[in-house]
Amino acid sequence: VQLVESGGGLVQAGGSLRLSCAASGGTFSISAMGWYRQAPGKQRDLVATINSRAGTTGYADSVKGRFTISIDNAKNTMYLQMNSLKPEDTAVYYCNAEGVYVDYEGLKTLDAWGQGTLVTVSS
Questions:
Q1: 97 by DSSP, 3-state: which?
Q2: Sign (positive or negative) of CA dihedral 46, 82, 22, 39
Q3: CA-CA distance, 19 to 68, in Å (whole number)?
Q4: Which residues face 120 on adjacent strands?
Q5: Comparing C-alpha atoms, which of 7, 14, 23, 17 is closest to residue 96?
Q6: Furthest CA-CA distance within the chain
Q7: 95 within 8 A of 21, measured Cβ to Cβ
Q8: Sheet holding 67-72, edge to edge
Q9: What is the Cα 101 distance to its own chain's centre?
Q10: What is the pLDDT of residues 58-113, one digit of tens each?
């Protein structure tokens, strides 16, 4: 299973960006997805999560009210709408998917990561 992020870029403070994460490849079922970010010299932190079946969401305190996570199960694609961006939001954003997939050996646990997309917010 591959995850491909897109939508990163350079934006001024106060601006908006929309990130996408598309899952593909093989037979799989996703139960939850999330966005994480890693700023230079810092650890990777959780930004937002979504349960693909219940639709329940969770956010880091630093992005509550500004970011919105959503999922299109038919397209196996997750989104992160980021508004009112701040310079401190600058980071590489990674998507994660959890669930199960099937290979020649049978059912396996899925825990996949995308390659990351850079978001730079200028002041």
A1: strand
A2: negative
A3: 10
A4: 10
A5: 23
A6: 51
A7: yes
A8: 2-6, 17-24, 77-82, 67-72
A9: 19
A10: 999 999 999 999 999 999 999 999 999 999 999 999 999 999 999 999 999 999 99
70: tokens are 């959503």
Residues 6+ apart with CB under 8 A from 55: 71
In 3D, which of 120, 116, 121, 122 has the Cα closest to residue 35? 116
In the chain, the amino acid numbered 59 is Y
Residue carrying the six token digits 């396996």? 108
Residue with tokens 């990351």: 116
Q: What is the pLDDT of residues 104-116, one digit of tens each?
A: 999 999 999 999 9
Q: How far apart are CA 96 and CA 98, in angstroms?
A: 7
